[in-house]
Design brief:
Strand content of chain B: under 5%
Structural class of chain B: mainly alpha
Radius of gyration of chain B: 25 Å
Number of helices of chain A: 11
Largest sheet of chain A: none
Largest interface: A-B, 47 and 53 residues
Number of helices of chain B: 15
Shape of chain B: globular
Helix content of chain A: 55-70%
Strand order of the largest sheet of chain B: 1-2
Structural class of chain A: mainly alpha
Shape of chain A: elongated
Helix content of chain B: over 70%
Distance between the termini of chain A: 42 Å
Oligomer: heterodimer
Number of strands of chain A: 0
Strand content of chain A: under 5%
Order of helices and strands of chain A: HHHHHHHHHHH
Chain lengths: 306, 325
């Protein structure tokens, strides 16, 4: 009895941490590694020793595959360096995806927390709002929002929309799609946690609702939100690609999506233009899905709350 | 009695959601920067004809009226079958004319991929559950995991490149109606159908597998086995049915994701479906047409969810009784 207690007391937190991270497994570490690599190079892109993503090296490397003219990943349709474009593409693609999910996490999480904790009419109203937004297929909703808020330049004299505005609109549009998804999961998770004894105890001891929501409920609901948020980033990256393929995305700076769209015409002769950014999306989505699954398994987030 | 009340409540909920969705799509039009009429008819006000036409369209769309009036008028048109038009200086094409051609193409694509997805996912789901933990199970699960990470546009381009261009086996674009040439119709639909089905296969397989694993641990399965019924019969006759409720529900609910996916797939394989019409409307800034089409898609999706929900209640006696209580 004594030894067990001693054990519990002496186990330093670091060791617990190690035990937890060990569960990640080789694929988990590969996923983390890939995400760190992608995020790191995206953040550091301007100071990395790579070519200017907009500079054309001419026909020397245009449509040439990896290795052509000393360019690691070859050149695109008009001879721009593919490696540099994938890295700068990651910058915009990740900015949009992470921005959209953060928006969903903050707004959806807040609304879900309130709906699940306060219940009554607030819950009915918020659930209806979530359902309304979920009743338009996600991509169609995002497509309509982007189309309306940042119309494509048709060359008929309409105001061209600036690149920054396009990025903001994409974040907003994909965020609007994410809000009800994260809202619903937070609400469902909050519903079950706010029945627990420690929450009741806190209520009885006179804690304010806001305090209970943020200090008692939120920390427990958070893992569920995070696992969905990771999947959400993956979905948003794919959505950016889909929108680019539909012709309503960003055009001025490279993104993974518009690189694919731009290379589609050369699919027959230079498939690498399409497949290099495709691979970047594929590995990133796979890593995010895998880590989302790990969190879900670790914290026992039930599929039912989906 | 109770069931009728429950049903009434849900129909009411359905109507509320439909009204709010259409309200939202109407509201979208007010977000368009600039004068909507100038956007719909992108011609400078140079002569009488253009000015007259613009005034006519403005009148027709009640653009000078306050938003609630405009919405009410739109709703009145919508329920009587007028979904708006694609506008031009000289004429206008009713949205319904284009939608009635495009909708069947999209529906075919969605239904085909749903059938293909279930046809592949069910046997794999059952067998992986039966052989849970085996090498076959792990390999299948790994493949499913990879398929989930493969965006449909990437798969579409891969298939277009390898099967279409490299091997030259199948056409990579265009559409042939079934009534015109059944063989060509199927040949044109194979790649789009498979593209759209791939992610669904992975989702359904994983769902069925986990439900099936749980079912196989239940007493009645042990009972059937101990009676000497063959494994094959136990799997397909006894275990599959109670395990298939989740997958059927999800299959119903997934149609929304499929519609979104179909938009992209149609674009890549150049199928003249709803997705193509939607993109055409967006690129030519025909927001009234866009509003009508989004409303149709949303209503279609909401009603389908509603039906799945009802069907689920009817199919599963546990839920039926729990709700009646």
């Amino acid at each position: 009895m004594e030894t067990i207690e001693a054990d519990l007391v002496t186990t330093p937190p670091e060791q617990v941490e190690v035990a937890a991270t060990r569960k990640l497994g080789p694929i988990g570490w590969l996923s983390v590694g890939w995400l760190v690599l992608i995020t790191g190079s995206a953040l550091l892109a301007p100071i990395l020793p790579i070519a200017d993503p907009d500079e054309s090296f001419g026909s020397e490397i245009a449509r040439k595959g990896p290795g052509a003219g000393g360019h690691l990943l070859g050149g695109d349709t008009i001879g721009r360096d593919m490696l540099s474009r994938v890295i700068f593409g990651a910058r915009t693609s990740l900015l949009i995806a992470v921005g959209a999910v953060l928006l969903g996490l903050v707004v959806g999480g807040l609304l879900g927390l309130v709906a699940g904790y306060v219940r009554r009419k607030v819950d009915t109203v918020l659930t209806t709002v979530f359902n309304v937004f979920l009743s338009i297929p996600a991509l169609v909703l995002a497509l309509s929002l982007v189309a309306v808020l940042a119309p494509t330049d048709t060359g008929d004299g309409g105001d061209p929309v600036s690149n920054t505005r396009r990025v903001v609109v994409l974040i907003l549009a994909l965020g609007v799609v994410t809000v009800p998804i994260l809202g619903r999961i937070t609400r469902a998770s909050t519903l079950s946690w706010s029945e627990r004894e420690f929450v009741k105890a806190s209520e009885v001891s006179g804690a304010k609702p806001a305090r209970i929501m943020f200090r008692e409920v939120l920390p427990n609901v958070f893992p569920a939100m995070m696992s969905i948020a990771l999947l959400g980033i993956a979905v948003a990256i794919v959505a950016e690609g889909s929108l680019a393929l539909l012709g309503v995305g960003i055009t001025e700076v490279p993104t993974w999506g518009n690189m694919i769209e731009g290379g589609r015409r050369d699919l027959r002769d230079a498939p690498h233009i399409v497949f290099i950014p495709s691979a970047a999306i594929f590995f990133t989505v796979m890593a995010l899905n895998y880590l989302g699954d790990v969190i879900r398994a670790r914290f026992d987030v039930r599929e039912a709350v989906l | 009695m109770n069931l009728a009340r429950e049903l009434g409540k849900r129909v009411l909920g359905l109507v509320v959601v439909v009204l709010l969705v259409t309200l939202f799509t109407s509201f979208l039009l007010t977000l368009v920067p600039g004068d909507p009429v100038d956007t719909l008819i992108p011609v400078p006000d140079e002569n009488e004809i253009v000015l007259e036409r613009k005034a006519e369209v403005r009148e027709r769309l009640n653009l000078d009226e306050p938003f609630p009036v405009r919405y009410a008028a739109w709703l009145g048109d919508f329920v009587t079958g007028d979904l708006g038009s694609f506008y031009a200086v000289t004429d206008e094409v009713p949205v319904w004319d284009r939608v009635s051609d495009a909708l069947p193409v999209s529906l075919q694509l969605v239904v085909y991929s749903q059938i293909l997805a279930l046809a592949v996912a069910v046997p794999f789901g059952v067998l992986t559950a039966y052989r849970a933990g085996s090498r076959f199970d792990r390999a299948t699960n790994g493949t499913a995991f990879g398929m989930l990470a493969l965006p449909n546009f990437v798969l579409a381009l891969l298939l277009a490149y390898y099967v279409g261009v490299w091997l030259g086996w199948l056409p990579v674009d265009g559409y042939v109606p079934f009534s015109e040439d059944p063989v060509e119709h199927i040949r044109h639909m194979i790649l789009p159908t498979f593209t759209l089905a791939a992610a669904q296969i992975a989702v359904y397989m994983r769902l069925l597998r986990s439900d099936m694993v749980a079912t196989l641990l239940e007493d009645f399965i042990q009972m059937a086995r101990s009676k000497g019924i063959s494994d094959r019969r136990v799997l397909w006759r006894h275990a599959l049915r109670p395990s298939s409720l989740t997958i059927l529900t999800v299959a119903g609910l997934n149609v929304g994701a499929l519609i979104g996916g179909a938009v992209v797939v149609e674009r890549i394989f150049r199928l003249p479906g709803m997705g193509t019409e939607l993109v055409t409307a967006i690129l030519s800034r025909q927001y009234v047409a866009l509003q009508g089409m989004v409303a149709i898609i949303a209503i279609f999706y909401v009603v389908l969810n509603f039906l799945v929900d009802i069907l689920y209640t009817v199919l599963d006696p546990r839920i039926r009784h729990a709700r009646a209580r």
